[in-house]
Amino acid sequence: MGKEGKTFSEWFYSRKVQRFLVIVTFMFVPLLLLLVFTYIPFGKMVQFSFYNMKYIGKRTFVGWKNYIEVFNRPEIFKSLAVSLYYMGGAIVQLALALFFATIMVFKVRGEGVFKAAMFFPYLISGIAIGFIFKFFYARGFVLDTLIQLFGVELEDIPYWLQDTRINNISLAATSVWRYTGQNMILFLGAMMSVDADLYEAASLDGANKWHQFKYIILPSIKSIVVLNLILSISGSLSAFEPPYVITNGTMGTGTYFVIMNRLAHENQKVGLASAMAIVLLVIIIICTVAQKLFFAYVFDDGTNDESRAAVRRRKKQAKKEGRNL
User: Fold this and answer.
1) What are phi and psi of 310, to 5 degrees?
2) Are 101 and 228 contacting, i.e. CB atoms less than 8 angstroms apart?
3) What is the DSSP letter of 157?
4) Helix, strand or coil, per DSSP, at residue 284
5) In a 3-state reduction of DSSP, which class is residue 193?
6) pTM of the shown model
7) How confident is the model at residue 193 (pLDDT cuts 50, 70, 90)?
8) Cα–Cα dist 62/272, whole Å
């Protein structure tokens, strides 16, 4: 037979068809799981947000009433202010991760043990970490005992979880402890891709470690730094495990997720909780887009040879010199 007269068997077993079938087969299972466990539940949540309902029982369509109630309930958006503590913690953890990764890239003794010790907290379940720090901060337990070793009386030590001035800082510190090692490994992986010859050349030119970090390392890992910062700040808006496990959201520690969980599971206001989830999704999207636009403006290249900031400084200097003439 000619090329146009292929039998079905020959066509089916051809390389092109077999490659297509392999691609479809390997894509089918992940797409099915994504559809069943992500897109369908998300669609149902959007549907539930327009109903006054419990998990079991009658459902009443209320339209936009749940969304209006989200914006009218003061405790809901007050909980977003608590996220600012976690955002501050996220910045601290990224700074620490960048500092430790920079130290590791210059090869120090015992770096393998240090990296393992730093990364280990990320491997622990968030619930387990919550219970660890619940006893760590408890009155008269680990932290108070350590402070007393330095001669501080127990009466002079604050209540880490009851004092509303510092309890959210204490909870945010648990996230710093957990995620610093993960971010350090990500930064270190990016730094290891930088050509080592650049460090040697910089050293020969008299550059110290700070200059090498500022002019070689930081520009090379700029995209990773921006990505981690965006993910960390966006994740701070959905902080849940530390306040839920350690304080159950009491004494002003309830984050947006904790309030939403309380409304959904304790008060059985599933429709209102679903509306809160949609509103939070919109807030996270807005924050993410705003951050991307901000960093795109700050770090965007003005020309092939100069950053945008350098271009602005050069133009400002030229304008100043023009006025002086």
Assistant:
1) -65, -40
2) no
3) S
4) helix
5) coil
6) 0.78
7) confident
8) 11
Query: Which amino acid is present at 188?
Result: L
Smallest CA-to-CA distance from 220 within 200, 197, 192, 201 is with: 192
E strand or H helix at 218, and its extent?
A: helix 218-220
Q: Which residues, at least 6 apart from 17, have a Cβ–Cβ distance to it below 8 Å?
A: 11
Distance of CA 152 to the CA centre of its chain: 36
Q: How far apart are CA 316 and CA 37, in angstroms?
A: 54
Location of structure tokens 């390997």: 26
Give the CA angle between residues 191, 192, 197 to the nearest 5°: 100
**Strands, E assignment, the chain:** 51-52, 60-61
- Structure tokens given for 214: 């500022």
- Token pair recorded at residue 101: 């990764």
Decide which of 2.40.50.100, 1.10.3720.10, 3.30.390.30, 1.10.580.10 is the CATH code for 65-301: 1.10.3720.10
User: Each residue of 203-221: b (16+ CB within 10 Å) or e?
Assistant: eeeebeeeebbeebbeeeb
And the tokens for 32?
Answer: 């099915």
Looking at residue 10, its amino acid is E
Contacts of 286 (CB under 8 A, 6+ apart): none
Contact 171, 243 (CB under 8 A): yes
pLDDT-derived band at 305, boundaries 50, 70, 90: very low
Q: What share of the chain has pLDDT > 90, as a percent?
A: 32
Nearest to 55 by CA among 263, 242, 285, 229: 263
